[in-house]
Amino acid sequence: xxxxxxxxxxxxxxxxxxxxxxxxxxxxxxxxxxxxxxxxxxxxxxxxxxxxxxxxxxxxxxxxxxxxxxxxxxxxxxxxxxxxxxxxxxxxxxxxxxxxxxxxxxxxxxxxxxxxxxxxxxxxxxxxxxxxxxxxxxxxxxxxxxxxxxxxxxxxxxxxxxxxxxxxxxxxxxxxxxxxxxxxxxxxxxxxxxxxxxxxxxxxxxxxxxxxxxxxxxxx
Length: 220
Fold this sequence. Notes:
This protein is mostly helical. It has helices spanning 5-16, 24-30, 38-63, 67-93, 98-103, 108-123, 126-154, 159-169, 178-189, 195-216. The chain has a single domain, classed as Heme oxygenase-like (Heme Oxygenase, Chain A, Up-down Bundle). Helices cover 76% and strands 0% of the residues.
């Protein structure tokens, strides 16, 4: 029996959840034992990631022939624009000016995630990509909530500096799942399976963890 759209989204999140604790950096930040300098690295890496993801989501929206998927990706692209604005305050709080951002050399382990999203923007079936992104955002949102709280409690950052993480940590509004559920349902009705969606989600999570753990391994 074919899974319903809502069942598929919930199942993929459950399958990935046991691995979320493999994120070593967030545990260090939560306990206040990560060096303060790590926030400068996060900001510098995210400067590249957000700009790339913005373009990837716009391309996915352009490729999506199904209305719900198209609106879902367009909304994500709009969110990346807001995130880039929020990131400016974190840049300032960590001493990253325009020159420092230009001179910063991104880490391969951190940039694997946006590179994979760019690959999916070119090659992935939009409905399957919706599943993968939705599953990944559940973990990403929880990481951001933990980081935002720790930034205030352990590192003394103000609300503006925490705004980037607050943006993604905010709980979804009622009915926020309507577009992804409808997009995935359309994919299922079109005869597309869940195998690729699960593969995309698994790789997304691996690249997500690689981002955080690469930063955890950097000297303080």
